[in-house]
Design brief:
Oligomer: single chain
Strand content: 15-25%
Largest sheet: 7 strands, mixed
Structural class: alpha/beta
Distance between the termini: 39 Å
Order of helices and strands: HHHHEHEEHEEHHEHHEEHEEH
Length: 309
């Protein structure tokens, strides 16, 4: 059934966006869905040898000296007999001393930064916690890992490009704008590896197109503002940032977008033992493709015409 639904969503934007709009219009269903995910049982299976996981990674075109962004779910990779540290160490060996490894390390907030526009939300840069899974949380504790001080949707990295990647992040009020770590990775043609996750769930790089275009983005009122108290040791900075309004998520055609990426040769996705893998060879080409479509009003959001500029 899941394969049929996925095929339906991939063929056109309409089916997925219709379901999303129903989902977002029913708060009680959202609560039920969250509880269902939270209470789901992960049945134990016989562990697969870590070499099988390594072989899936090696088959991609990852080389020494690469800038590599990794999206992951250790829950999905739990079928393999491997620890987060073993996986990180393998990835670092794969790209070598001249390579740079990066992972999304979105800050943990005790307050509701998505919905609360009244209070000043606290981001303590010394807190080595993130909301993007087990692998990035372990990665943050590695010596020499550098984390962006931008207070939303940020990156952590280790390697020769790590410091330069984070250098100008606070010059912007956008997570994915021209001074962001994400845009830096785009300009460096970073490769993107998906481990245990699908592209329609986790390809964060797509947001670079939105923030790059900024006021040229075709949709009105795309952003909302949030007030942040950024605590960096003894230094405290008050900063107002812009983030995409969650209202637009109901119009997101992520399965259709993924299918377009595959058709354009920008994304390779496959499954092994029921576990999802994916690889993007050139993130710059991916972002440029989205920008070109957006400038021709061909978004991966099926938004009613009344919201266009």
């Amino acid at each position: 059934m899941n394969k049929i639904i996925k095929k339906l969503y991939s063929a056109s934007m309409t089916p997925e966006v219709t379901i999303r709009r129903i989902f977002y219009s029913l708060p009680s269903f959202q609560k039920y869905y969250k509880n269902r995910i939270k209470n789901s049982v992960n049945l134990e299976k016989q562990k697969l040898d870590k070499k099988i996981l390594f072989s899936q990674i090696i088959k991609t075109n990852i080389s020494k000296g690469d800038l590599l962004i990794v999206h992951s779910s250790m829950d999905s990779l739990n079928h393999f007999d491997i620890t987060p540290k073993e996986l990180i160490d393998f990835l670092m060996i794969l790209i070598g001393d001249t390579g740079t490894l990066a992972m999304p390390a979105f800050p943990f907030y005790k307050t509701d930064i998505i919905n609360d526009d009244e209070i000043e939300h606290l981001y303590d840069t010394r807190l080595k916690l993130c909301t993007t899974g087990m692998l990035p949380n372990v990665f943050l504790r590695y010596p020499k890992v550098v984390r962006s001080k931008f207070p939303y949707s940020n990156l952590a990295a280790i390697g020769p490009l790590a410091n330069e990647m984070m250098q100008n992040n606070l010059n912007s009020d956008l997570s994915f704008g021209k001074d962001s770590s994400w845009y830096f990775c785009k300009e460096q043609e970073a490769k993107i590896l998906l481990l245990g996750v699908q592209s329609n769930q986790t390809t964060t790089m797509v947001h670079v197109a939105e923030d790059y275009l900024d006021d040229k983005w075709p949709i009105k009122n795309w952003y909302v503002t949030r007030k942040i108290m950024l605590k960096d040791g003894q230094n405290i900075l008050s900063k107002t940032i812009r983030i995409r309004d969650q209202f637009w998520s109901r119009y997101n055609a992520s399965y259709y977008r993924t299918e377009c990426f595959k058709n354009e040769g920008l994304l390779n996705e496959w499954e092994h033992e029921g576990i999802s893998f994916g690889f993007i060879e050139n993130s710059s080409e991916l972002v440029d493709y989205i920008i070109k479509r957006a400038l021709n009003s061909k978004l991966f959001f099926k938004v009613p015409r009344r919201y266009y500029k």
